[in-house]
Specification:
about 120 residues; mainly alpha
Length: about 120
């Protein structure tokens, strides 16, 4: 990581995980969502560290978009957790949309981190 901001974000994300596992009492669903969204965002932003990628390239903005989508899926799950439980198995369209986005992110970042082109 070349960017000091990204280094600090990764550091504080790691400290947050340690805090949550040792001291905090938050929902497992929240912790899993934050874990997923945070690591997807860090992975997407790390891809922009390549010398060939500048703000003028489409790849730069795709990575920014993927990071934003990862954070939005996390926020959706946290903010609408009670509504999701209240509906039980009756999903609404937004549940399907955010679920498909999360699955797509999981596939994309698995592809990126395992080296499969």
């Amino acid at each position: 990581m070349k960017s000091p901001y990204l280094k600090w974000a990764a550091f504080f994300f790691a400290v947050f995980h340690i805090y949550c596992n040792v001291f905090a009492s938050i929902s497992e669903l929240w912790l899993s969502a934050i874990h997923f969204g945070g690591f997807c965002a860090i992975c997407a932003l790390m891809a922009n560290e390549d010398e060939a990628i500048t703000r003028r390239t489409m790849t730069y903005w795709v990575n920014i978009g993927l990071a934003v989508i990862a954070i939005l899926t996390t926020c959706y799950l946290i903010l609408f957790e009670n509504a999701l439980y209240a509906r039980e198995t009756e999903y609404i369209i937004s549940d399907y949309v955010f679920s498909l986005l999360a699955i797509g992110l999981a596939i994309e970042f698995t592809r990126r981190t395992t080296g499969w082109s």
